[in-house]
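Students often ask what a holo structure prediction actually looks like on paper. The answer is less mysterious than it sounds. You provide the chain, you provide the ligand, and the output is a string of discrete structure tokens encoding the 3D arrangement of the protein together with adenosine-5'-triphosphate.
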Amino acid sequence: MIELDDVGVSFGDVTALGGIDLRIPDGEFVTIIGPSGCGKTTLLRTVSGLQSPTRGRVRLNGRSPDEARSEGTIGVVFQQHTLLPWKTALENVVFLRRMAGKSPKRADARELLSTVGLAGFEGSRPAELSGGMKQRVAIARALHLGADVLLMDEPFGELDELTREEMGIEVRDLWRRERKTVLFVTHSVPEAVLLGDRCVVMGNDPGRIRTTFDIDLPRPRDGEVFDADAYQERVATVRSSLHADQ
Ligand SMILES: Nc1ncnc2c1ncn2[C@@H]1O[C@H](COP(=O)(O)OP(=O)(O)OP(=O)(O)O)[C@@H](O)[C@H]1O
Ligand SMILES: [Mg+2]
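The corresponding structure tokens follow.
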């Protein structure tokens, strides 16, 4: 369970987050959507412990974010990959796990790379990989860490639409198999509805939760879901909430 109690973050005069209350049970996939500058990245950074809250409290199964991170409980995938350029894909995947004090399992790491469609690229360095492939390495790395919680900040933001759809399916399948708790920031309403058990819509001035929608669509959400009225309705509801003046 991730618990945020009245979490606020200020940078000088700028209030990035203005009092966030959120409870996320283990295994839930939560999507977060909101206008630019409403505090989505700040929220993820605060949950991961990279940013300290100015007020309020974050707990991950009773632990502080710093404790959880040092135990390797939190995996992070940011919009811009943070791979080490001098290390191969495989070395990048095992490195974080080693840093968290866990024994690296190269066979598992290879299998994860294969799962994200990178069999044969284990020995490639980031410069030799496309943007989408680098993001896949970053996702494999977060999974190899063995983290229970995945924080993903527009991980597909810079990918072309086809790769984006493929990656969405991969992340969803991995989630279905491994039941991670996921916080997933996106600018795409259809993506937020397709992936989420719950969709959190944030607003500005200051950054806060505007509404939360339960996405009670059946899973798996493949193929025909896109045409289903229920899916289209959820997309329309989330979209109008996003654009509402409040
Ligand atoms: N380190 C920082 N120092 C000062 N201000 C910051 C810092 N990080 C974020 N902010 C401010 O906090 C607010 C929220 O920023 P944040 O990056 O969390 O927004 P976001 O919702 O992720 O936006 P986007 O959708 O564009 O990525 C913005 O006004 C931003 O300028
Ligand atoms: Mg951001």
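The first helix runs from residue 40 to 48.
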